[in-house]
Amino acid sequence: MKNLKILIVDDELGIRTGIRRGLKNLRVSFPFLENDFEYDLIDTETGEEAIEIIEKEKVDIVLLDNKLPGIEGIEVLEHIKKKKYDLAVMMITSYASIDLAVKATNNGAFNFMPKPFTRQELIAAVENITKHLYLKRMTEKMKKSDRKIRFQFLSVLSHELKSPINAVEGYLQIMNEKQVGNNIASYEKMINRSLERIKSMRNLIMDMLDLTKIESGEKNRNIRQIDIIQIARIAIDSIEPLVKQKNIKVNTKFPDEFITKVDASEIEIIFNNLLSNAVKYNKDDGELFFSIEKINNKIQIIVEDTGIGMSEKEKSNLFKEFMRAKNKKTRNITGTGLGLSILKKIIDINKGNIKVESELDKGSKFIVNLNL
Ligand SMILES: Nc1ncnc2c1ncn2[C@@H]1O[C@H](COP(=O)(O)OP(=O)(O)OP(=O)(O)O)[C@@H](O)[C@H]1O
Ligand SMILES: [Mg+2]
Question: How far does the centroid of ligand 2 lie from the alpha carbon of residue 333, in Å?
């Protein structure tokens, strides 16, 4: 339930009490909304006082008479427009003329209600203005968050692409100028490094594409019977280089085969992200546990590490886009902070859930349940 504040501005006591009576205990609901709206009412006789109230309090809807003792309703409307208050105004007046209606609408009044009106007309008008206000506010909110996400996307993308582009460019220049001689073998290390950087750029771009596709509902799902243990083994292969480098012991507990109806690429993303984190954020000579099990009617996937762990605060933001823990231990670990947010969206599509247990300096455990 949400409360909206209605300010009634009319110099006639009869109208003010009439509106109060008409809107008493009014509840408005829309099929597209979970919450009902209820209304708090305040009233005043003059335009001057109306402006004072609007400046002090958060008013949502103004029912505004035009003919008032001091300044006119239309001037109150002009003030509201000038100050860009986030509220909706409906004019109520017995001197309804086309002229005034045009002027009021030009100044941003949402609607016009001629006096006298019935209770039914009043309620219908308030329902209407509530819907208008709600949709207007939602649109504003969406525009803002859209822009924010787009900005974050672009800044992360450009930031993350800058250093590999510089590196590859540097290597190519060295080769172009044949700085270490004519023997191609002398450049092998640079070529390999360049290839690695290009691979990580491609991964970043793919991650961002995945996320955009999932978010816009455009990701095609290809659900069929497959053995997820095979996917698990491929995922383990792909972390092999870093596992070797950090000397991590990988322990697995799988059935020989686990055939189920899923989208292979979604399962791949889940495994890859959990495993890559469990290696990246592990300590040298640490351990990694990876198990897949059928429990009741669920697939339970557990990935546990003996790494740096997370604080409560880091844990609570874990699935947000671009979230990366920033501290001494993570400073030299690269990533975009997108992996887990993609994973979470995929788990949601599969109507599953994910739990995280983590202790700083001890390690982290991710438990994923997917319905069969
Ligand atoms: N197993 C883990 N142990 C400790 N911290 C972790 C672990 N997994 C994730 N985190 C923290 O959560 C953050 C978000 O993880 P996420 O996988 O989304 O992004 P990332 O690993 O930084 O980048 P990428 O998009 O390349 O996966 C990480 O930056 C890290 O701070
Ligand atoms: Mg990651």
Answer: 10
